[in-house]
Design goal:
Elements: H1 5-18, E1 26-32, E2 49-59, E3 62-68, H2 70-105, H3 111-121, H4 123-134
Helix pairs in contact: 1-2
The chain binds zinc ion.
Length: 135
């Protein structure tokens, strides 16, 4: 348990509130083969076209890809960095909140996971325990 979870929570949420635009999805570098059959890209893997930067994301279950030129990459790269930072902050806030709840309720950390692992590993033991509890 941290010394002051509320202080850390305030730091995390303050940093979140200062973030700019956050683009979803991922920024990836791609190379490609063109449609010209005689082009070197078809015979030599080291002569593929690119690399190009592209932004892919899911919209209503479908992957949407936008190719970015150098100017667009420069404009939007900070928005991807913001999204990455936001995901890290959300993960930290969730972990911190779980710690606080565990502490407040007197739940030992990872008790549920240990029990589940035990039950699946020793199936007979779990069944035996069930029999004892119903008897
Ligand atoms: Zn080509």
């Amino acid at each position: 348990m941290r010394d002051n979870p509320n202080a850390r929570r305030r730091q995390v949420t303050t940093e979140m509130s200062k973030l700019g635009f956050c683009l979803p999805g991922s920024l990836v570098q791609r190379t490609s083969r063109c449609g010209t059959p005689n082009c070197a890209c078809h015979s030599d893997p080291t002569r593929l076209h690119g690399p190009y930067w592209s932004w892919t994301r899911k919209v209503n279950g479908k992957t949407v890809t936008r190719n970015l030129d150098a100017g667009q990459l420069e404009r939007y790269r900070p928005w991807f960095d913001n999204a990455s930072r936001l995901r890290a902050l959300v993960a930290e806030l969730e972990a911190l909140s779980a710690e606080v709840a565990e502490q407040a309720e007197g739940w030992g950390p990872q008790v549920g996971r240990r029990q589940r692992v035990c039950a699946t590993k020793t199936d007979g033991g779990a069944r035996g325990r069930t029999r004892v509890s119903t008897a």
